[in-house]
TrEMBL record:
Domain of life where this protein originates: Eukaryota
The protein's name: F-box domain-containing protein
Alphabetical list of InterPro entries matching this protein: F-box-like_dom_sf, LRR_dom_sf
Lineage of origin: Eukaryota, Fungi, Fungi incertae sedis, Mucoromycota, Glomeromycotina
Length: 377
């Protein structure tokens, strides 16, 4: 027997709202007619305070490709603030209630659990970009949602300063084992593999590189505090052949590691080299770049610490002479980050050499910058 959709029945019931006799007869047609009609009758007779919300015809959540939870909160907050009857004291409570009801609509037709993240695991498994901001604890629902992803390419995790790194032990293994090889960008700040501050156990990151390293185009590790580990740098050389951008710490007794990185990562175009303290000085870095790199066209010196040795003008001149003799000839961009009194940019003769090679076309760009420059951080 043909059955009318619920949406059509609702339209019929609304059309008959003034015909009480016909409305009551509709209750006797079948269960669906009764269920649809009784809501109208109960509401009109003040037995229920509001008519029950219609269920959506389709499972709309299954068509959703991007869900910006922040935008949901933001727009509902704007809407509620326009309601003059809502006091500022009650605004947050109403906001949470409305947003919660919207999410219930979003996850309609999922019967496994009433919690949002568990419900999302049933319908959202082809997410390509995932940003996670953590303040206190990592819920199991979040972990499950990450674990079901089949096509995750970009993962960013923003950590609260007070969040213990141990709280991440159930997430990082997912990125090294359960997530597919499609992941090409990993940004932990708190793809590219960008870890600005403290990072989880080195062996977990090495395992991640072993699985996903061939997909990575950019790696930035420890830019804020200068953390580095030679075993991690060796893993970069071994597992990341397609790397184009690298920022990591190489200590003065690890020059062989830098040589291996240049030899393995033949597509490397930009490298940020930390200078000062136990790390390389500018002279060592320039010598290895000109001797062993193949496609580098951007060199960034980042002075996290005070330089032990100043770069002499004749040493800088020697670098550029060697650079101009490379085949094929190409220009280079030179960036000095967090400039201090010992950097090459503080020497007048060095700056005259820089100006000379800019005019000759061998320096494409020269810039002195700092930690606040987002282009190089």
């Amino acid at each position: 027997m043909f059955q009318l959709p619920a949406d059509c029945l609702n339209d019929i019931i609304e059309y008959l709202e003034n015909d009480k006799r016909t409305l009551y007869s509709c209750i006797l047609v079948n269960r669906l007619w009764c269920e649809t009609n009784q809501k109208k009758i109960l509401y009109d007779n003040k037995i229920i305070s509001t008519p029950t919300t219609k269920f959506p015809t389709f499972n709309y959540a299954s068509f959703c490709k991007v869900l910006f939870i922040y935008q949901v909160y933001y727009n509902i907050d704007r809407l509620l603030r326009k309601q003059q009857t809502i006091s500022s004291h009650n605004l947050k409570n109403y906001l949470n209630i409305v947003v919660q009801e919207i999410f219930k609509l979003f996850i309609f037709n999922s019967s496994i659990s009433t919690e949002l993240f568990y419900q999302l695991t049933q319908i959202c498994y082809n997410v390509q970009s995932f940003t996670l901001e953590l303040e206190e604890i990592v819920s199991n629902g979040i972990v499950d949602l990450i674990s079901v992803q089949r096509n995750l390419k970009y993962f960013e995790m923003i950590l609260c300063h007070n969040l213990p790194i141990n709280n991440l032990t159930n997430i990082i293994p997912l990125l090294t084992s359960k997530i597919s090889n499609a992941l090409i960008n990993l940004d932990i700040s708190g793809g590219i593999l960008k870890i600005k501050e403290k990072y989880p156990r080195v062996e977990l990151l090495i395992k991640f590189l072993e699985i996903n390293g061939k997909n990575l185009k950019e790696i930035r590790i420890g830019d804020f505090f200068g953390d580095s580990d030679n075993s991690l740098n060796l893993a970069i050389a071994k597992f990341c052949p397609n790397l184009r951008i690298l920022s990591t710490g190489i200590k003065d007794n690890e020059l062989e590691t830098l040589k291996m990185i240049f030899g393995s990562c033949k597509s490397l175009k930009s490298i940020k080299i930390w200078c000062g303290n136990d790390y390389l000085n500018e002279k060592e870095a320039l010598e290895f770049v000109v001797k062993y790199s193949q496609n580098i066209h951007e060199l960034i010196f980042y002075h996290l610490f005070v330089e032990r040795i100043k770069l002499l003008p004749e040493e800088l001149e020697s670098f550029f002479i060697s650079w101009t003799n490379r085949k094929p000839q190409k220009s280079i961009s030179l960036v000095i980050g967090n400039d201090n009194s010992h950097s090459l940019a503080k020497n007048y003769e060095n700056m005259e050499i820089i100006k000379k090679y800019i005019k000759l076309g061998f320096i494409k760009k020269f810039k002195v910058t700092n930690f606040d420059d987002v282009e190089y951080n």
